[in-house]
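Subject: Re: docking follow-up (NAP)

Dear J.,

Thanks for your patience while I sorted out the input files. As discussed at Tuesday's group meeting, I've set up the holo structure prediction with NAP included as the bound ligand rather than trying to dock it afterwards. The sequence and the ligand SMILES I used are pasted below, so you can double-check that they match what you have on your end before we go further.
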Amino acid sequence: MKILITGGSGLLGQYLNLELSKYHEILTLYNHLQRNCKDFNSLQVDICNIENLSQIFSSFTPNVVVHTAAVSTPQRADAVPTKTVYKTNVTATENLAKLCERFNAKLIYTSTDLVYAGYRGSLLTEDAKLIPISLYAETKLMGEEKIKSTFDNYIILRTALMFGFGLNGSSCFFHQMYDKIKSGEKVRLFYDQFRSPLSVLEAARTIKFLCESDIKTEIINFGGPERLSRYELGLMLCKSTGFEENLLDKISIFDIPDLPHVADVSMNVERLKSFGVILKSTKDSLKEVLVSKR
Ligand SMILES: NC(=O)c1ccc[n+]([C@@H]2O[C@H](COP(=O)([O-])OP(=O)(O)OC[C@H]3O[C@@H](n4cnc5c(N)ncnc54)[C@H](OP(=O)(O)O)[C@@H]3O)[C@@H](O)[C@H]2O)c1
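The structure tokens for the complex came back this morning:
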């Protein structure tokens, strides 16, 4: 299979490069930093440039496109011009969907759990109310809508908070938390925001499975099997590593005034499992992540 990856230098993208290249021919796209893309068939391209994307589709003719490139957090989206966020998260996603339709490729798109209303219960199913409250989440949802209105050969993955170790300088909250606790620094962690944390290793493996499957026209909650706060994940980390639990400072989402207050976007992952995906427990995923660091 020929698989085109966008966001190949990101947290998830680099794990996808490693996982998908074991079994398939890949072309991975990066923007500013090359990171592990240098070890693979890769190209530097701004996904907002439709001509460049068109040329890539013409020459590589992918069977599957895994689209992870994005202005990828609420904080980043608030720090760059709205136009840039829109162009990257919405227009480029629409262009990719149109190119996939033209070249008969399947599109796998990493949306976010933050599209859900964060105050309407726990373990939300895919048909739960969508009320994105950040520019980031709103544009990711618009990306979903553009895909759905273009064609039907897609899988939209409403992705949970991912945890793991960022490769080659990429990072995530878990990696930062690990480094701080390891060096004896205190970390402040929300006890009152709930997600369904998913290991980045599990995410890459599952995306490989989805690339190879016939599944299409699906919106799928893409999370781990448990509803947890960051504080609870921190406790799990301390228990697995022997790090000091008293370095974890419990804070509320309301302690950070400018943050969009999303209390609970934990997801029901039965649909994901119904396709044959077997998810490790969070504890086992955490162990796997810790072993991968050695
Ligand atoms: N990480 C999570 O916990 C999480 C949770 C839910 C959903 N998601 C979604 O999952 C996907 C991957 O997340 P991630 O954490 O791996 O993100 P990430 O580490 O921030 O990586 C995003 C990648 O997108 C690239 N990119 C941004 N703008 C681009 C442009 N104009 N042209 C080409 N590439 C561009 C970035 O390259 P440069 O840095 O060089 O610009 C980077 O390699 C994103 O779509 C995100 O919305 C992530």
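A couple of observations from a first look. The first strand starts at residue 2 and ends at 6. The radius of gyration is 18 Å.

Let me know if you'd like me to rerun anything.

Best regards,
T.
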